[in-house]
Structure formats: structure tokens, C-alpha cells
Design goal:
UvrABC system protein C; flat; alpha+beta; DNA repair; 47% helix; 8-stranded mixed β-sheet; DNA excision
Length: 597
């Protein structure tokens, strides 16, 4: 609940779109937000019960509320973005990026140079970009240099100086990389025609250049200038090869921005693709650190404004995974199928790959962050009240109704803790009864933990459907643990998760990390239980075999096992070794039996 001073400030807020700013008692800016209706939005902070601890802490610290009224929600979005970048308030999502990106510069000169740069100088030069990697810039410049001869010197090629013969051609001219504008050997008009073609290539439009080169090649071939025609043909091949690599969708899709978002508990990843004539001319993924449990819509809206400002995008059409309010001047489209949907899927795939890379890096550099993220994700996905740092999973094994056993595997912080694994012989159940066996094992496990005052798990997973889950609940009821430990059942076929007193199962995303950990737990419990079951069945079979040998009784079998520890060792023991334990007569019978086998 807000104090009297804050309540008064809220009461005087207008019902208009704008930006609000929260300050603490020391006048430090805590948070910047935008709203369609300032009064309603700010009031909601003091009337809602927030699940997020950070939001509750923010609200407690607010002492002063300032606001700026704007005409539209789009203006509010732009202003909010600028204020966050300028002041970087503690509770706002992090959009910090100090990286300086490379550009391609077409210099404002009589014979313009074309080169890469990280500095923008406002001298009338043209800048294309920014690009997210210098490799892309060099690839484009190599393509341009292979197609059009341009000067690389920084001489002042004014008409007077050229006419006065101040400069001489350099090595680049003799190598054929420059056509000598410094000596007036290359006309200004022809040079500027090439610069116009370069502008189109940088924008992703190869059509004009291809048409020009094909016309030129045909003219040269008609004049029987085959060597020159071949050189032009090589340029066409370079251009077509580059175009085939860069064109990923319908070439009619022109001047479009594509955005997608992937998020988890702590971070969101927004991918941006810029398309021109069906070619991706730019790709960038922005990592956003969440602060107050922001929605994907809020984060995407903010990221779009930030990215379009950063990359100076003027595209009037945007493809999005869901509707986002961006103002009347921009046309938004949510593709459902066809080429447009394919390019949106490609953007989403880029965001996912970037996220996976960051996870791998975090796992190596900061394992704790990786662990916390998985635990927070599991808590959210499985609707738990606390993070499942300690999980136990149970599985029954009673193949062909013999030797019923059960296994309990333990995961701590998302990883197997093998020293805590336990195996159980079923004692009170006769015959193959999965439900009764599960009830017995769960009861024995947690009765012992309670007696020994050992820590209890936050989550129990039962390998089985509703029946096994109900049986396990009976045991928890007997021990007074129902409601104190979360328990779910996982059905084998469809990966359905069953909850107590809920007939409708939960289905997790097949690619989710939560489901992968649950499957790993279930598979590990199955493997551990099966290994124990096979071992027990094998021992029983071998022990029974020893007793079937004529002249070898139960006491003899016990003596042998005490000394040799296993039937395998008994079978491979020599006559002398056996004689020392059970005498030569019975030793002879054993040796004959195993040699006949």
C-alpha cells in the first residue's frame, strides 16, 4: 500500500499517454516506464500483489513519481527507450551495448572512396550499416572490388589538380584495380554510375548490376572481343554466386524488418533480420536481462525501438510472432504460412541458437548462473512453490513377475547424485503388483529419512500414471508428508505429468529443459532398477544351479559363497582351491559339473 505522499502524487496524474519515472528517498532514478494511461498504470503498482520479489522491493522504495506527457503511445515508447539508455535505471531491463559496429562509407568526394569504418563523421558522406560483424563488411567490399574498379588513394582529385597533372597513376592502376581518375583516364560520370550500382548492391539489389553486365558481355561478344567478354562473364558469376548465397526467400519481399523473441525466467533474446530483395542484409540478436518479470510483448516492443534506432532502419513493414503496438506509420504483420512464415521461423531459430551459445558459455564460465536458471525454469514449468534442488524418482522392476525390486535415484541441482541412489527389495507384496510395491517403497524411503532426520526432497517423481501416483500419496499421508513435498507421476507413452487431485495431465514442450531433466531422471531410475533386478535374478539362478549339483547341499553352497564371494569365481576356481574349502570329494563334483557345462 502506498504512503500518503505517493497516494497524493498518483491522484494528480493525468489519464494521458506518457512516461513515468520512480525515484527513491535519495532522489535516485529507480525505474522508467511507459503507459497509455499514466494514472491507471502507476496506480496498478500499488494495488496489485506481485509474485516477483524485485517488483515488491521496487514499490517499497518509491518516494517520488515524475511523469512526461506525450501525444501518442509510440512517442512514449521512443521516449522510454531514450531515458533507459541515458540513465540506465536499476530496475529496468538491460539494453546496454557499448559495442561500436562497422559501417560501409561512401565518401563525399568527387571520385568517392568506399571503405569500412567504425566512426561516423557528418561531412555529407553516406554510411551503410551498421553491420554486426566485420567479416560481413569485408565480404561485401571484396565483392564490390571484384566488380567495380575504385580508387583507394586519398588524394584531392579536384578538376584543377588533375588538369595540372599533379598526380601520377600508382601500382593499383597497373594491376587493373583502378582505372586512373588521378590522371583523368576515368570519367567522373562513369565512376558515379559504378557508385550508384554499389549503393544498390549494399542495399541487397543485384538486379541492375546483373542486367548491366549481361548487356555489356553480349555487346563485347558481338564485337568479337571475347577476352573482355570473358572478364565480364566472370563478374556475372561472382555476383550470381553471392546472390544465390544471400537470397533465402522470395525476392519480392523487399525492405522488411523481421523480429522474434525467445525468453526464460531471467533473460530474453530478440533476433532482428533485415531483408532487401529477398536477401538478408543484416542479422543481430539482442540479449535483454529481465528485472521485473516483464512480458514478451513489453520486451519485444522495447527491443524493436532500440534495434531500429541503433541500425537506423527505416523499413515501413515489420514481421512479428504476435501483435505489438508500434504506431500508425509502421505496418505490422504476423505471418502464418508461406515465405513470410519461413523467414520468421529463421529469425526465431537464430534467437534460439544465440540463446544456446550463451547457455554453453555460461555453463563453462558461470555454472551457478546456469544452475539457477534451470531450477527457476523447472519451478515455473512444474508449478512448484519452491525450486526443486533435490529431486527423487522411483521405478519398479518385476520382469515376468519375478524378483520384484524398486529403485530410487536422486538428482541435486539438476545433476545425478549417485551416492544417494537407493535400491529396494519388495518385502510385503507378493506377485507383480506395481501399485502396492510403489506404496511400500515410498513409505520405507521417507520413514527412514524422517527417522534419521535427513533432508527431504522438494520434488518426488513417480514413474507411472495415476495409479502409482495414488499409491505413493497413501504413503505420504501415513507419514504426514502430504502437501509438504511436491509429487508428480510421469506416464511412459505420452510424457504426461499427473498431479494429485488433478485429472487433467500437464504436457510440457517436447524441447523444454524441464522435460529433458525429468526424462533423464526416469531413464536413470529405470536403468538403475533394471540393473539391480537382473543382478538379483542372475544370482538366484546361479545359487539354485549350485544346489542342483548332486552331493552339494545348502551348507556347502554357503561355505563356497563365503569364501569365493560369487558363483562366477566358484566356477573358475581350480580343484586345489575348492578342495581347501569343501574337501576333494565335493570339489571333484563341482569341477566335473562346470567342465561339462
Amino acid at each position: 500500500m502506498a504512503n500518503a505522499s505517493v497516494t497524493l502524487q498518483i491522484a494528480t496524474l493525468p489519464d494521458s499517454p506518457g512516461v513515468y519515472q520512480y525515484y527513491d528517498k535519495d532522489g535516485k532514478l529507480l525505474y522508467v516506464g511507459k503507459a497509455k494511461n499514466l494514472k491507471k498504470r502507476v496506480s496498478s503498482y500499488f494495488t496489485k500483489n506481485f509474485d516477483n520479489n524485485r517488483t515488491r522491493l521496487l514499490v517499497k522504495k518509491i518516494v517520488t513519481i515524475k511523469h512526461i506527457v506525450v501525444k501518442t503511445e509510440t512517442d512514449a515508447l521512443l521516449l522510454e527507450n531514450n531515458l533507459i539508455k541515458n540513465y540506465q535505471p536499476r530496475y529496468n531491463v538491460m539494453l546496454k551495448d557499448d559495442k561500436s559496429y562497422p559501417w560501409i562509407c561512401i565518401k563525399n568526394e568527387r571520385f568517392p572512396r568506399v571503405f569500412p569504418t567504425r566512426r561516423m563523421i557528418k561531412d555529407g558522406s553516406e554510411y551503410y550499416g551498421p553491420y554486426t560483424s566485420m567479416k560481413t563488411v569485408h565480404t561485401l567490399l571484396d565483392l564490390i572490388k571484384g566488380l567495380y574498379p575504385l580508387r583507394t588513394c586519398n588524394y584531392d582529385l579536384s578538376e584543377e589538380k588533375i588538369r595540372a597533372g599533379k598526380y601520377k597513376v600508382c601500382l593499383e592502376y597497373h594491376l587493373g584495380n583502378c582505372l586512373g581518375p588521378c590522371e583523368g583516364l576515368y570519367s567522373e560520370k562513369e565512376y558515379h554510375d559504378n557508385i550508384e550500382a554499389i549503393r544498390n548492391i549494399v542495399k541487397g539489389n543485384f538486379k541492375d548490376s546483373l542486367h548491366k553486365f549481361k548487356t555489356q558481355m553480349k555487346t563485347l561478344a558481338a564485337d568479337l572481343k571475347f577476352e573482355q567478354a570473358q572478364r565480364v562473364k566472370e563478374k556475372i558469376d561472382i555476383l550470381e554466386n553471392y546472390q544465390s548465397k544471400s537470397t533465402v526467400v522470395n525476392p519480392k519481399i523487399n525492405n522488411v524488418d523481421v523480429f522474434s523473441i525467445i525468453s526464460d525466467e531471467s533473460y530474453a533474446y530478440v533476433n532482428f533480420l533485415q531483408l532487401s530483395h529477398g536477401a538478408i542484409i543484416r542479422s543481430h540478436t539482442l540479449e535483454i536481462k529481465k528485472k521485473l518479470d516483464e512480458t514478451d510483448e513489453e520486451l519485444l516492443q522495447l527491443a524493436i525501438v532500440e534495434i531500429r534506432q541503433r541500425f537506423n532502419s527505416l523499413s515501413k513493414e515489420i514481421y512479428l510472432p504476435f501483435e505489438v503496438e508500434l504506431g500508425e506509420d509502421i505496418k505490422t504483420h504476423v505471418p502464418k504460412l508461406g515465405d513470410k512464415k519461413a523467414i520468421l521461423d529463421l529469425s526465431e531459430r537464430n534467437a534460439k541458437y544465440y540463446r544456446m551459445e550463451r547457455f554453453k558459455q555460461a555453463k563453462i564460465v558461470d555454472p551457478d548462473r546456469h544452475e539457477k536458471r534451470i531450477m527457476a525454469q523447472m519451478k515455473k514449468d512444474l508449478r512448484l512453490s519452491e525450486e526443486p534442488r533435490h529431486i527423487e524418482c522411483f521405478d519398479n522392476s518385476n520382469i515376468q513377475g519375478t524378483n520384484p525390486v524398486a529403485a530410487c535415484v536422486v538428482f541435486k541441482n539438476g545433476k545425478p547424485s549417485k551416492k544417494d541412489y537407493r535400491k529396494f527389495n519388495i518385502k510385503t507384496v507378493e506377485g507383480p503388483d506395481d501399485f502396492a510395491s510403489m506404496e511400500e517403497v515410498v513409505y520405507r524411503r521417507y520413514k527412514r529419512l524422517l527417522e534419521e532426520e535427513q533432508p527431504l526432497p522438494q520434488l518426488i517423481i513417480i514413474d507411472g500414471g495415476k495409479g502409482q501416483l495414488s499409491s505413493s500419496l497413501k504413503s505420504l499421508d501415513k507419514l504426514g508428508l502430504r502437501g509438504k513435498i511436491a509429487i508428480i507421476g510421469i506416464a511412459k507413452r505420452l510424457e504426461e505429468l499427473f498431479y494429485p487431485d488433478d485429472p487433467i495431465p500437464l504436457y510440457l514442450d517436447k524441447k523444454s529443459e524441464t522435460l529433458k531433466i525429468i526424462q533423464q531422471l526416469r531413464n536413470e531410475a529405470h536403468r538403475f532398477g533394471l540393473t539391480f533386478h537382473r543382478s538379483k535374478r542372475s544370482k538366484q539362478a546361479l545359487n539354485t544351479e549350485l544346489e542342483t549339483i548332486p552331493g552339494i547341499g545348502e551348507k556347502t553352497v554357503v561355505e563356497l559363497l563365503k569364501h569365493f564371494k560369487s558363483t562366477k569365481r566358484i566356477a573358475s576356481a581350480s580343484f586345489e582351491e575348492l578342495s581347501k574349502v569343501i574337501g576333494p570329494s565335493r570339489a571333484k563334483k563341482l569341477v566335473e559339473h562346470f567342465s561339462n557345462k
